[in-house]
Structures are given as C-alpha cells and as structure tokens.
Amino acid sequence: MATMTSLIGLINKIQRACTVLGDHGGEGLSLWEALPSVAVVGGQSSGKSSVLESVVGRDFLPRGSGIVTRRPLVLQLHKTENGQEYAEFLHLPRKRFTDFAAVRKEIADETDRITGKSKQISNHPIHLSIYSPNVVNLTLIDLPGLTKVAVEGQQESIVQDIENMVRLYVEKPNCIILAISPANQDIATSDAIKIAKEVDPSGERTFGVVTKLDLMDKGTNAVEVLEGRQYRLQHPWVGIVNRSQADINKNVDMIAARRKEREYFETSPEYGHLAHKMGSEYLAKLLSQHLEQVIRQKIPSIIALINKTIDDLNAELDRIGRPIAVDSGAQLYTILEMCRAFDKVFKEHLDGGRPGGDRIYGVFDHQLPAALKKLPFDRHLSLKNVQKIVTEADGYQPHLIAPEQGYRRLIEGSISYFKGPAEASVDAVHFVLKELVRKSVAETEELRRFPTLSHDIATAANEALDRFRDESKKTVMRLVDMESSYLTADFFRKIHLEPEKNSNGPPNSNRNAPPNTDNFTDNHLRKIGSNVSAYINMVCDTLKNTIPKAVVYCQVREAKRSLLNYFYIQVGKKEKDRLGAMLDEDPALMERRNQIAKRLELYKQARDDIDSVAWK
C-alpha cells in the first residue's frame, strides 16, 4: 500500500501541474476539481488565517481589519525531508521565497493587482506552494470570510458575492469543508456551519474547528461542541488555540505557538481529556489522513475521468490536426492530402452534395434566355435600318433578283449581338466557380490549420479558373462567328421561291415583266426584316443550346478535372523550406495544439503515477 505522503504528495503535484496548464475549470469537471482538497470556510475574524498559519507552522498571511482575504488562496503544502523551507507562487514560477514576511507582502500585492486597493473581492485565485519539513502533504483553499453587512467602500452585493464564491468551491463533491467557528460565538449562528449544512447535509465532508477557546468568558467552555453533543458531525470537532495578539506583536514563531497550544490543552481542566485530539498539529494530521482516505475512494472515478479526458484530447488533436513531420516527403504528402480534401468539397458543391452548383444552371436557364430576349433586333431590323443596309450593300450597282448582300449584312449584324450574352454567360459561371472555390476553402476542415496553404490553393484555383474562362470565351465567340461565317443555304432558297409562291397570277404570267429596281416598297422591306428575324430566331435557338455546352465543357468540366493540376506541378518543384512555409500554421492553432499536447502528457503521466503508487 502506498504511503500517505507519496499519494497525497502526488495529488498535490498533479494539482499544481493542472494549475500551470490552466486545467482547473471550464465545462464539466476538470482534473483539478476531481482531485480532493480542503476549503477553509468561516466568518470574518473567525480565526481562519491563524488556523492556516498554525497548520503551516509559519506566519505568512496578511492581517488587518475587515476583509483581508479578498481572493481565494490555493495553498499546497509539500513535506520535505531535507530540512529546506521555502515558498513559490504560480505567478512567479522561478522565484523562491525563504523570507515568509516577503510571502505575506506578495500575497497582499498580488491581491491588489487584481482587486486594486479597494475592499472588493475577486474569484481569481492566488496559488502558493510551501515546502517544509514541518507540514503534511495537503491542499488547502483559504476563502474570503463570510460577512453579514457591507462596510464603507464595498458594494452592497459583497455579502452575496462572497457567499457565491464560497459555494462555488464547497458545492463540489470532492471538496472537504473545514468549517471554522469561534468559541465565543453561538455555534447555531456560525456562518461556516450554516453553509456547510446546506451543501453537505449529511456532514460527511465537513470538519468542524472551534477557535479562540482561550478567549471564552470565565466559567464557560466549548466541551459540548467539541464532544459533538451540541451539533453532531460525522467527523470529530477539533479545538484550536490561536496566538494571542501579544504573541503576534512579539513575533512569537509558530513552532513555539504550537508548543504553547499543546500545553494549554494538556493542562486545561475542561479540555484535558480531549487533549490528544486537539490542536493545529492534530488537525493537520487528521485532515491529511482523511484526505488520503478520500483519495483512495475516488481513485476509480479519477482514473475514469482521466481516461475520458485523454480520449477527448486525442479526438480534438485529430480534429485540429497532428503535428507535421519535418521531412519534405511527409510535407508534400500533407499538402496533396489537403488539396484532395479541398477538391472533394469543391466537387460536392458542383455535383449537388453541397449548395451552389445549381446557380450555374440558373445562368443557362434564366440569365442567358433573358439576355437574348433583350437584344435590340427590333431596332436593327426596323424599316429604315433595313432599307439603309440593303441599299448600302448594293453599292452603285443594284441587285438583280434578291438583295443577297443586304441579307448577309443584316444577318451578320444581328448575329454580332449574340456576343454580349455569350460573354456574360462565361463571366457569370466564372463568378459562381470563384465563389465555390472560396466556400470550399472555408469549408475544408483540414485546411483551417494552414492559412498560407489555404491562400495558395485559393490563388492557384482562381488562376486556373481565369484560364478556363479565357478559353471558354474564345470558344463561345467561335460559335457566334461560325453562325456568321456560313449561312444556311435552304434559308435563301426559301426566300427566292416565296415571290413565285405568293404571286396572284399564273406562275409565268409576269416572267417577261421588268423587275422593279427603283425602290423597295414598305411591304417588301418588312418581308426582308421578317425573313432575317426568322433566321436570327433559328440561330438564337441554336446558340441557346450550344453556349451552355461550350461553357460547361471549357469551365465546369475542366474545373472538376484539372483545377489544381498546375498547382501540383509547381508544388512538386518546391524545395523543402518552401514546402514548410506553405504549411505555416495559424499561431493560435499551434498554441492550442501545444496546450492540448501538454494536457495530454499531464493526464497520461497522472494516470501512470496514480497507478504506480495507489495500489502498492
């Protein structure tokens, strides 16, 4: 079986490590909270500070009137075998205090650093470790004294604020309550007993301490309380005789005060029969023994919490990513893995697994048809413009049968209008694809830890999309130009036959009549405009189908197939230091990983240490 010293000392060590790593609060029950400790509770001027100093064997706490303890003091006692005696503060980790008057001053200064020199309180604890051969291994938490009224300079809420702070500690199931009550006060009105009874009605976590026994009125004593007859607890009451003010003024050391306390109980006619279980030395041993017993009882639940936390920390490390190896092969592999993860998300957006790809269909189904409808064909094929273009096309020599050149110029001019909607469709799809790249980078969980790589991938993807857009524009422009470069012959044959088909007389009745070449009637101009409009509608229907095909082929298809191909080539040529620069992580994320790694190491070490000593 492990010795008390080794087990409690180990718990102290783990608690201190938890404090250093900030693992002493937050959501759920932390390891620090799961490890048992002793909270010292009492009203103002109940003698709390004197009890602590008696247990430690040193005069080290600030003194004064009113609220002196304005921040919780987490006091870890470590028994040493080499005779050395010193103190260390968590906020001054590299400084040892051998002068305990300096410890007192540092506690006061550190309190003022948070609360100012006012009489306000703070729940931000001060952590102090004392190493001495005159102590037992123990963790004590000195809390602000409970009070009933606010004094001048304090907020009206101070009474409730202190009580809430005390409850925050004593309500925890692993907290042992050291309830301090002065003997010259009715135990029924004790602030400490009142709050202990509320949070620990069975009394199994509460130790009662009666102070100032030597200051009771003559003819009165606290025997009934100490024997548990006035108020029963599951654990024995302990009486304490604090140093008198005269002793404090004379700087009587605590070791001499302990000796004087023992003499008081051994020679007291009222308490002589209880002398063997009275005094600060007995209290320290009693608490240490009980703490060791509680620790043993809690070991299974502590180990279970440690194992659960180890699993949670490993899961979080997996989520934010493990550290990257330093060799170039591993770095290149990581970069390619990140690219594949991004590419997967991007394709899900296009193929419908994630939102966004449907906007491309919206360009073809709504935006392109709407743009085609708005083209100014009515103006281009107005009577005046048709006459102008046909006339200009003939030059000095009028046409003989049908104004073929006029038709061609009207058709070519009309077809040129299709270039605007074609280019707009390319640009609209390009905008959607760039937005999907941005979303995909943001939604790729693996990339969040690498801001530089995220930027490089986004830049490479956008550059590729620019190249796809340029090729797509060339292709849709070719589609429009192809419609101009070769007109459908059947269209002209149909126009040539229409006058014969529409003639009122016999088919050959006007064969020898001279053609009317002086001018075109309005009806004839309307007929030309109508014929061109019919041809343009046919071309419009064709382009309405072929433009989306070209855009998808040149932009969407290529984005799915080869968005990062050029990036892969460039990455493969990079040197090791450039690969490392691409995997430069967010400093906050790196710090978070380091903290998780440290906590993980702490929990694993704590589990191994507890296993190594708990069952020997």
Short description:
The protein has helices at 4-20, 31-34, 48-56, 100-115, 158-170, 191-199, 223-226, 245-249, 254-267, 280-320, 328-351, 358-373, 377-380, 383-394, 404-416, 419-443, 451-485, 489-502, 522-562, 565-572, 576-582, 587-614; strands at residues 37-42, 73-79, 86-89, 92-97, 126-132, 138-142, 175-182, 206-211, 238-239.
End-to-end distance, in Å?
A: 4 Å
Helix and strand composition category: alpha/beta
What is the 3D form?
elongated
- What's the number of extended β-strand segments? 9
Looking at this protein, list some descriptive labels.
616 residues; alpha/beta; nine-stranded mixed beta sheet; 22 helices; 58% helix; elongated; cytoskeleton
Task: Summarize the structure in words.
The protein is of the alpha/beta class. Helix content is 58%, strand content 8%. It is built from 22 helices and 9 strands. The chain has helices spanning 4-20, 31-34, 48-56, 100-115, 158-170, 191-199, 223-226, 245-249, 254-267, 280-320, 328-351, 358-373, 377-380, 383-394, 404-416, 419-443, 451-485, 489-502, 522-562, 565-572, 576-582, 587-614; strands at 37-42, 73-79, 86-89, 92-97, 126-132, 138-142, 175-182, 206-211, 238-239. It has a 9-stranded mixed beta sheet with strand order 4-3-5-2-6-1-7-8-9, sandwiched between helices. The radius of gyration is 45 Å and the shape is elongated. The chain starts with a helix and ends with a helix. Residues 1-5 and 500-518 have low confidence and may be disordered.
Secondary structure elements and pairings:
Layout: H1 4-20, H2 31-34, E1 37-42, H3 48-56, E2 73-79, E3 86-89, E4 92-97, H4 100-115, E5 126-132, E6 138-142, H5 158-170, E7 175-182, H6 191-199, E8 206-211, H7 223-226, E9 238-239, H8 245-249, H9 254-267, H10 280-320, H11 328-351, H12 358-373, H13 377-380, H14 383-394, H15 404-416, H16 419-443, H17 451-485, H18 489-502, H19 522-562, H20 565-572, H21 576-582, H22 587-614
Parallel strand pairs: 1-6, 1-7, 2-5, 7-8, 8-9
Antiparallel strand pairs: 2-6, 3-4, 3-5
Helix pairs in contact: 1-10, 1-22, 10-22, 11-16, 11-21, 12-16, 14-15, 15-17, 15-19, 16-17, 16-19, 17-19
